[in-house]
Design goal:
Blueprint: H1 2-23, E1 31-35, H2 50-65, H3 75-92, H4 105-115, H5 136-151, H6 161-173, E2 180-182, E3 185-187, H7 189-197, E4 204-208, E5 218-220, E6 231-234, H8 237-249, E7 254-258, E8 265-266, E9 271-272, H9 284-290, H10 295-302, H11 316-324, E10 332-341, E11 347-352, E12 364-368, H12 369-374, E13 376-382, H13 388-394
Helix pairs in contact: 2-4, 3-4, 3-6, 5-6
């Protein structure tokens, strides 16, 4: 009888705990204010190709906005041609150029303008025995090849070296299709880009905000992955959120490039924040929780993601310091598709990632306005999605 009583008590306790867990509210509650329709989340897996995934997600979303059919565009096509052009520049620069799997948003528009684009089903880029991108060996083999070309024991380049490089790309990613059939119609990559996608690369610009260049002028952004030496427009910090908000309100999305190595970026919790680590202005319960604690203990509380916290005020000076000290780097590219607010009214952006769907928001993350502006390297937008007063200052028509 005693055993039965214990079992019943355990069952009741378990049921009660389960019920409590089921009714427990999440630490962050988001209300969507505006959201743009986009394509499904993808997975870059073990490759440094976020720039291709995020920019193509952005352009696929542009197609939806324009009333075009939804399509899954090929990241591998972009990666292949970017690597091919990068190899030529790397050799011409005697190896004094970053040569790796990373890139920028303008790499994607550059490739589409020069080589066109194809659907994913035409060029998946998985010619090496895996079902997802695994680029460790691939990147290393390409780097080793061009380094040997530069070392060049013959003391003169042969006419074959770039053909050899293309052969490696063929082996890993597959040969390039000259023509293909899609939805019953034959295309070349260039006619598919022009006729099917309707994407005009000249419609897209990149914008940043740094103090070491004049505002409302263009500059070459100084990040290692900018092998194309691409220009971005420089605006004041407050203009960045104006542009993002205006774009979303008008039905446009935004590609975002920045740094996600911060403790405040939590994929597992689905949020990215910038807690006010200075604490001087923190008040009430949060201040009491933090008073007298060591930095390690404070960080444990700040990055527990158990409740929304007061966030740091982001200034141009702070952004510049982080960039100059390599604390904000060209780390990752993602895709802003919406704006939301948490239960305290704090503004967040709904951001589409390329790390599959295994997080609380099925592949999306809510990034606070503070995080978006603090850790941004640059954004890409349709030039028609820039407020007219800012566009006029930039000379964009």
């Amino acid at each position: 009888m005693k055993k039965i009583f214990i079992i019943v008590a355990l069952v009741i306790t378990s049921f009660t705990l389960f019920a409590q867990e089921e009714t427990k509210k999440p630490a962050y509650e988001f209300e969507i204010i505006k959201e743009v329709k986009t394509t499904p989340v993808k997975n870059q897996f073990r490759s440094g190709t976020c720039w291709s995934f995020s920019a193509l997600s952005f352009l696929e979303t542009e197609m939806i906005r324009m009333g075009k059919p939804e399509v899954n565009l090929s990241e591998a096509w972009i990666i292949r041609h970017a690597y091919s052009d990068k190899a030529i520049d790397y050799v011409r620069w005697h190896g004094n150029l970053n040569f790796a799997g990373g890139g920028g948003f303008h790499d994607v528009t550059h490739v589409i303008e020069k080589y066109g684009i194809v659907p994913e089903e035409v060029y998946a880029g998985l010619n090496y025995g895996t079902e997802k991108f695994v680029h460790g060996e691939f990147d290393a083999v390409l780097k080793g090849y061009v380094d040997q070309v530069i070392e060049n024991k013959n003391k003169e380049l042969t006419t074959a070296w770039h053909n050899g490089f293309e052969g490696i790309l063929d082996a890993y990613l597959g040969e390039k299709p000259e023509t293909f059939t899609y939805n019953g119609k034959e295309y070349t990559p260039k006619t598919f880009a022009a006729e099917f996608t309707g994407i005009n690369p000249d419609d897209y610009v990149e914008i940043s905000s740094f103090m070491h260049h004049p505002y409302y002028e263009e500059f070459i952004i100084e990040v290692p992955d900018n092998w194309l030496l691409g220009d971005v427009y420089n605006v004041k910090l407050e203009d960045i959120t104006k542009i993002i908000d205006y774009s979303l309100e008008k039905g446009y999305s935004v590609a975002w490039g920045g740094d996600v190595s911060e403790k405040g970026f939590s994929w597992s919790n689905g949020v990215a924040i910038v807690p006010d680590v200075a604490y001087e202005e923190t008040s009430g319960t949060d201040k009491e929780r933090l008073t007298g604690l060591s930095t390690k203990e404070k960080n444990k509380i700040l990055y527990s993601f158990d409740r929304p916290l007061k966030e740091l005020e982001i200034t141009p000076e702070l952004r510049q310091k982080e960039f100059d000290n390599y604390k904000t780097t060209d780390d990752h590219g993602m895709h802003i598709v919406g704006v939301a607010k948490d239960q305290n009214g704090t503004k967040y952006y709904k951001v589409k990632n390329s790390w599959d769907v295994d997080n609380p928001y099925n592949g999306y993350i809510y990034m606070s306005e503070a995080f978006i502006t603090f850790k941004m390297i640059d954004i890409m937008v349709n030039k028609n999605a820039i407020p007219s007063d800012i566009a006029k200052k930039l000379g964009i028509k």
